[in-house]
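Teaching assistant's notes for section 4

Start the section by putting this record on the projector. Ask students to predict, before seeing the second block, whether Long-chain-fatty-acid--CoA ligase will look compact or extended. Collect guesses on the board.
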Amino acid sequence: MATDRPALPLVYPAGVPRELTVPDEPLTAALEHSAQTWPDRVAVDFLGGTTTYRQLADKVARGAQALLDLGVQAGDRVALALPNCTAHVVAFYAVLRIGAVVVEHNPTYTCDELAHQLADSGATAAIVWEKTVPALLAGQSQTSVRTVVAVDLSADLPWAARFALRLPVAKARRTRAAMRGPVPADVPLWHELVGRTAPIDPAHPAPAPTDVAALQYTGGTTGTPKGAILTHHNLVANAVQGHLWTAAVPGTEVVYGVLPFFHAFGLTLCLSYTMRVGATLVAFPNFDPALVLAAQRRRPGTFLPAVPPMLDRLVTAAENAGADLTSFTYAISGAMALPAKTAARWEQATQGLVVEGYGMTETSPVALGNPLGPDRRPGALGLPFPGTDIRIVDPEDPDVDAAPGERGELLIHGPQVFQGYWGRPEETAEQLLPGGWLRTGDIVTIVDGYVVLVDRIKEMIVTGGFKVYPSQVENHLRGMPGVQDVAVVGIPGGDLGEKVVAAVVMAPGAKPVDLDAVRAWCEQRLARYALPKQLVIVTELPRSQVGKVLRRLVREHVLTLAPTV
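Reveal the predicted structure now:
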């Protein structure tokens, strides 16, 4: 399979580069450069606790030596299970500095979820939130973890806030209980290790660009999570691509870290992009609109990577509080489709822009995006990032390109494409084709020169021999009066193969709809074979950590129910 750029009818506006030169350096080089260029600029702001680039580089150097003292070596996998905080940034770069491999985990995982991923990666050390320590220790015997270090989240707060937590009042007790947890006496504390350790010798070997930097576990929305192997080169490439795309002025941006750093989207936009452009990262332990608005008053943001529900909730909170969001010049939305209504609300509230991006864990993660300008196309994935090539192929035979204007599976080739799945050569061979082309499993087409998502192959419904794309049905149903949200899935349907089922969340105060009304609404734009044959009213839809609807779980729920309508 050749890697020559296919002759696709893509339209690139002026100012959007097609080519890319990736610096021959590890991911840690960007932090070192920013510390030299802007030593006194605030690198991280965590609930008012600030750390300059000079201080951050020093903490990373001390954390790196602390890891060496604990016996961690280059190539070892080190698990991080932390909320967003300054310590997360320090630990991330400290692990990378010694050539070890970061393995990010959700700090709220259960014992079984955490033990499975730890065992799969072969991690030998773990730096985890105090409240995660019990879950890790309970399953430690199933893993290779021999060193556990705990992180006191409150240690990253400003001095006054730390002092307030010790006050004998109810609010302080609630906040302390939310941030801290019991830790056995033999488990060392990260901040104490970093505070008492001398910085690493600057001559200590840095990782090579080709070295593995991270094992990033896929979301597991369609099966068991797998560890995507990402090199320093992959992550550096995606940070550089993001810089070119946003045209950020180095040393000026204030990026709001509301996305979890343990997710690929948050990792790249908050942990690596920010360091490359010398931005101030305002980190939030969880997404709370009130916390965001408080930070906006203290340190106004300029750039917000987010998912659509976050944008909606922030605008609503700002409207209710009379808060000003106009400092945000741009936002990038990902992980799910950006509704036109959400985009319009955000742009009206900020007088800035919001555009969609597209990617996967396997692409570090961003591969396509809408231009940040008047050429953006709401509802489209956009255009391949600089240095990124795409093909649209027959899903049954990826060697055959789809005819012009036809739908097909999206293939991606570029410097951000991963190296394969950790310990899973067969699944790697299925996903990563000869020549480095990644099968995305997404069906797309090109409309007016922009790539548009149709749906995922694994979630496509085949009914009566016809193919139904759930997102098309969902997009139409979201415009139905009274409907707040919807997920469409297929379940066994006898002679039909599958039948289309709509799980609907009603808007507050709205009267529940019935199947006849839903079908009548859908008939306006959809073929009869795509009309839902069953309706389920639910109070909420299951979502991933970044808010993506988990259709697999919706389908499992529907299968447990008798037809309700």
